[in-house]
């Protein structure tokens, strides 16, 4: 093979440098091992062997720096409000009708909402993520300073989860942020909110649709889901009166106004059978034209799953589309 031309050689060296493992990666690994031995009684040699199987991935850092939620609503919506996801939601509902009904009876979360979460997260299991979870959490925990503390904590949660559930962590695949299974639970959520809904002695968010359904419903209930209460509804805003009113855009805010206060500020909507003291927030989304929405407590609960108003609105609108399609199909 002839030698590389100087310019091409420089490109190759630059590419190699761009993906080289930073010093922080292995330094962080050693400190993490020491902490896990001291705090949780792990064996240092076992952790060294496990983490030796992980690799730093620059692609994970790059993905964290360009999340889907940075897109405008008009583009973000198109990713999830598709005929395929709507049909998939109807099929998921039909295939798991009894389990979804049991989850609604036990947790108060409607089938279409659970289906929409699984649809948005993994297209009903078709895309579970291709990143080794160990790579994701070590890369972000040791070499992503902006959120390193969070991801080191998630790496610890993963190892505790693996010990509790007899899971081999090196075999797990998930998102670039280390989320796992059909509902894409991060390790701390898996430990705290996953349930054994099929009563087989395991909490399996990959192979058990029942556990997936029950765990999503439990997550919502634990975060304050209110059965029978709407999620959100469209509104109109008198532009001349918007100054001084707190308006949420991409970042969620907890409902701390009331419907009465919004009306007094010039927000209007189609008649609703809701008490004027109902907590609410005003949302503005950058669609083809600005869209205004009133978000209620259940909308905020959806943002606890993913801290983005775009995400919550995509889940809500997909759930409504699934519900309508399911009813039409009979």
Task: Give structural notes.
Keywords: Signal. It holds the Pfam family SLT_2. The protein is of the alpha+beta class and 330 residues long. The chain has a domain at 19-65 and 129-193: Helicase, Ruva Protein, domain 3. The protein has 15 helices and eight strands. The strands form two sheets. Strands 3, 4, 5, 6, 7 and 8 form a six-stranded mixed sheet that branches. Strands 1-2 form a two-stranded antiparallel ribbon. β7 (279-286) and β8 form a beta hairpin. α2 (23-40) runs antiparallel to α3 (44-51). The longest helix is centred in the last third of the chain and has 21 residues, at 309-329.
Distance between the termini: 65 Å
Mean pLDDT comes to 92
Unreliable stretches covering 5 or more consecutive residues: 1-18
Content of β-strand = 5-15%
Choose one word for the global shape: globular
Pfam families: SLT_2
Protein name: Lytic murein transglycosylase B
Active site: 121
Domain Transglycosylase SLT: 29-320
